[in-house]
């Protein structure tokens, strides 16, 4: 039995030794890692040293590195092809390098000549020029290393560092104990201190402060902007950024009284610490608080800070005054706006456009605060842009002058380029156009930061009108009574003017116009002009024609046709010869109106009245007397009604009106001439 026990003991010891030996030879030893520089986000030089317990054959065995997920690893085989000296094992360029595709963030390096002996120290160097980028968040990270001969992964830690915030300053208002304070923190981010949108700024308070457990992001600002969110854990507020902050940037954090931070109850110096995600090492500052009875007024605005440029609010401001005292008395707050009278504050004050000053103070029965004042600049009106061009402008020129003015002082940008604004707020710029559409995006920003945008579209259209004339056919062509102007224009939407008078153009571009000259000259100009309305581009054709004016009125007994100054018209009745008197009677309205008279008829008195300038003629149906400018004259034949039309003796009417009458007995034609 004792022999059996001794045998089993020997087996256990042998198994333990074998296990120990296998563990030693299955993994590398003495792993160390250093990174230089260790700055977050920097390209680092990585030096990895370890002891191998097995031979590593040149050109065959590999060393493997698995970087943390937060590291940025370039295409290693690409980097090796372009920078083979970037990777060294024991000072010699590696025989090869590349990614291990089935393992994330893992690369291999092939052992160079002459290989490595067991128990030798291995130094693997990845130079900075290989562009292996450190994690962007500072902290401790793990790198895993193994070889083909010792496949068990061994890990070591390396540290990524960052800078700290600089120039931390703090002020509390009031600096008294047990008071609802406004706390301002100022600092500068460091060389590596850029904090991206969505990352955090942290503010930690020493015990003694009374902190709100449900903090409201509306009453804290970071560089004038409310954070996305605010949370508290123990004595530390986490402020999540709404906008990124750059490196070496000035940062101001303000906690307003309504945020609810109460100063300690005991006087003394109290520590506040500030840090960020990118600079996580806390930096501290002390704030002193002292015991003193006080009354004071907290002024809060909505928005919390000027939301425009140059200290302007670009929305109406609501001002709230909050009286506070650490005594048992009840304070009352008084205020006045501009030159108004002091009144008791009850409701929020609304500050409208303009520059306005609010003066205020609070008092109790025993304490009176010194008067304070705050001036607000409010401008809620965006600048107006007036331009020399319509929003959609056509032109045939290769350049365009954009000229205009602003309604107030400010800056103007066209397609991102700033133009000079003169003292009268005018501006101009000349721009080259391409064929077709050209877009100009105008942005006007006034002193307060109000912004107006305008889109101008300029279309370069080089279309030239084509004017084809059918009549006149040539210079000195003869026309009577009117000059026929006829032709075609392309495009059909062009305007056509004849002697500066616009004529109608149909959908095919055809036009026809009867030009009646104002003068009786035999030589008449005919000037035609076609204008392309989109751009104003035009073409012209000019003629001089022979013109004969027919100034007669012609009638014929038995015919309804009447020729008035060369133009034939149709009457509804015919002139006729009175059988009794042998006189020619004509329809009074047609003839009189052709000669330029106004005709009216009074059916009660059966009186016909003819008027033109200083001539007045009265005729009565059936009467052989007429009244001409008040003088009674006799007629050869009385006016009569036939076929529902009034007829009058032609010669009397024409000659009384001042016209010459010729009668052709053979053709029974009447010609009336001035």
Automatic annotation (TrEMBL):
<protein>
    <recommendedName>
        <fullName>Copper amine oxidase-like N-terminal domain-containing protein</fullName>
    </recommendedName>
</protein>
<dbReference type="InterPro" id="IPR036582">
    <property type="entry name" value="Mao_N_sf"/>
</dbReference>
<dbReference type="InterPro" id="IPR012854">
    <property type="entry name" value="Cu_amine_oxidase-like_N"/>
</dbReference>
<feature type="domain" description="Copper amine oxidase-like N-terminal">
    <location>
        <begin position="566"/>
        <end position="672"/>
    </location>
</feature>
<dbReference type="InterPro" id="IPR013783">
    <property type="entry name" value="Ig-like_fold"/>
</dbReference>
<dbReference type="Pfam" id="PF07833">
    <property type="entry name" value="Cu_amine_oxidN1"/>
</dbReference>
């Amino acid at each position: 039995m004792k022999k059996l026990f001794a045998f089993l003991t020997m087996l256990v010891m042998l198994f333990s030794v074998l296990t120990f030996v296998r563990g030693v030879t299955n993994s590398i030893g003495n792993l160390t890692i250093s990174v230089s520089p260790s700055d977050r986000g920097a390209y680092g030089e990585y030096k990895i040293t370890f002891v191998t317990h097995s031979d590593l054959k040149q050109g065959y065995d590999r060393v493997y590195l698995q970087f943390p997920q937060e590291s940025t690893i370039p295409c290693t085989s690409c980097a090796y092809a372009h920078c083979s000296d970037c990777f060294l094992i024991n000072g010699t360029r590696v025989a090869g390098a590349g990614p291990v595709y089935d393992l994330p963030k893992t690369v291999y390096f092939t052992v160079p000549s002459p290989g490595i002996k067991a128990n030798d120290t291995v130094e693997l160097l990845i130079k900075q020029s290989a562009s292996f980028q450190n994690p962007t968040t500072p902290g401790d990270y793990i790198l895993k290393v193994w070889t083909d001969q010792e496949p068990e992964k061994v890990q070591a830690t390396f540290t990524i560092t960052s800078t700290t915030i600089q120039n931390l300053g703090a002020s509390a208002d009031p600096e008294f104990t047990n008071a609802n304070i406004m706390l301002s923190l100022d600092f500068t981010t460091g060389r590596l201190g850029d904090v991206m949108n969505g990352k955090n700024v942290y503010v930690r308070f020493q015990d003694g402060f009374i902190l709100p457990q449900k903090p409201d992001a509306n009453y804290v600002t970071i560089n004038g902007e409310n954070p996305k969110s605010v949370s508290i854990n123990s004595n530390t507020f986490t402020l999540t950024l709404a906008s990124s902050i750059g490196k070496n940037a000035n940062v101001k954090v303000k906690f307003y009284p309504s945020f609810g931070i109460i100063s300690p109850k005991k006087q003394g110096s109290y520590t506040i610490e500030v840090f960020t995600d990118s600079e996580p090492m806390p930096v501290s500052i002390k704030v002193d608080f002292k015991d003193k009875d006080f009354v004071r007024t907290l002024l809060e605005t909505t928005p919390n800070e000027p939301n425009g440029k140059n200290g302007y609010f670009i929305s109406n401001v609501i001002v709230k005054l909050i009286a506070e005292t650490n005594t048992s008395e009840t304070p009352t707050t008084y205020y006045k706006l501009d030159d108004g009278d002091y009144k008791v504050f009850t409701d929020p004050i609304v500050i409208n456009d303009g520059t306005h000053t609010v003066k205020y103070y609070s008092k109790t029965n025993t304490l009176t605060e010194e008067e304070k004042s705050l001036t607000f600049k409010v401008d809620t009106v965006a600048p107006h842009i007036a331009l020399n061009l319509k929003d959609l402008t056509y032109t045939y020129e290769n350049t365009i002058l954009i000229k205009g003015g602003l309604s107030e002082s400010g800056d103007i940008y066209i397609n991102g380029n700033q133009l000079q604004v003169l003292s009268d707020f005018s501006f101009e710029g000349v721009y080259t156009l391409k064929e077709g559409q050209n877009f100009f995006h105008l942005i006007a920003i006034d002193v307060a930061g109000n912004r107006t945008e305008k889109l101008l579209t300029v279309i370069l259209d080089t279309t030239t009108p084509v004017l084809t004339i059918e009549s006149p056919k040539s210079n000195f062509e003869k026309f009577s009574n009117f000059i026929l102007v006829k032709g075609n224009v392309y495009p059909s939407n062009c305007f056509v003017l004849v002697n500066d008078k616009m004529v109608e153009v149909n959908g095919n571009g055809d036009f026809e116009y009867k030009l009646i000259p104002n003068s009786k000259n035999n030589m008449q100009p005919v000037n035609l002009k076609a204008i392309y309305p989109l751009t104003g581009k035009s073409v012209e054709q000019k003629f001089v024609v022979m013109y004969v004016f027919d100034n007669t009125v012609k009638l014929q007994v038995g015919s309804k046709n009447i020729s008035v100054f060369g133009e034939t018209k149709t009457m509804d009745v015919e002139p006729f010869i009175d059988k009794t008197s042998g006189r020619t009677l004509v329809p009074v309205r047609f003839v009189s109106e052709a000669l330029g008279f106004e005709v009216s008829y009074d059916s009660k008195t059966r009186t016909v009245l003819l008027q033109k300038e200083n001539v007045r003629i009265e005729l009565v149906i059936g009467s052989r007397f007429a009244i001409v400018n008040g003088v009674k004259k006799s007629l050869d034949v009385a006016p009569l009604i036939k076929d529902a039309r009034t007829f009058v003796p032609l010669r009397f009417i024409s000659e009384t009106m001042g016209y010459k009458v010729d009668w052709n007995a053979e053709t029974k034609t009447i010609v009336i001439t001035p």
